[in-house]
Amino acid sequence: MTTLRDFTLPRLSGESQSLADYEGQLVLVVNTASKCGLTPQYEGLETLYKQYGDEGFVILGFPCNQFAGQEPGGADEIAEFCQINYGVTFPLFGKLDVNGPGESPLYTWLKAKFPGDVEWNFGKFLIARDGNVVQRFAPDTVPEALVPAIQKHL
Fold first, then answer.
1. Which of the following is catalytic: 19, 29, 30, 36?
2. pTM of the predicted model as reported, rounded to 2 decimal places
3. What's the domain range around 118?
């Protein structure tokens, strides 16, 4: 059975990272964009990461340019934007596709339990400490609304 630990993806810096490094943690996977109406969610996500990180919670951000070209920049631009505007410290990965023929195998796996295309930027998937997807949240679900689910699974 496939779990989160079975994937290796490039970080924004270009280095490959095995997601097995997050085994045993509660993981929130989010497809992100810098020029989206939902971009301010970065602030709430960073707050959650700081609030629950010491308890074994991590957010993995995956920039995506599939929705109205709202993540047009390169890796350096994305990293700089996230740091300067939102102080993002949670791990950011290289751009990927979340739907369609070029869809990342990670997203194929994420959507297997909760079928349907990712509707927009900031779609969220919660992965329990055992590496299995336990909940999916719509893009417009504000980070603060995830607190009960995070607390339940920590």
1. 36
2. 0.97
3. 30-153
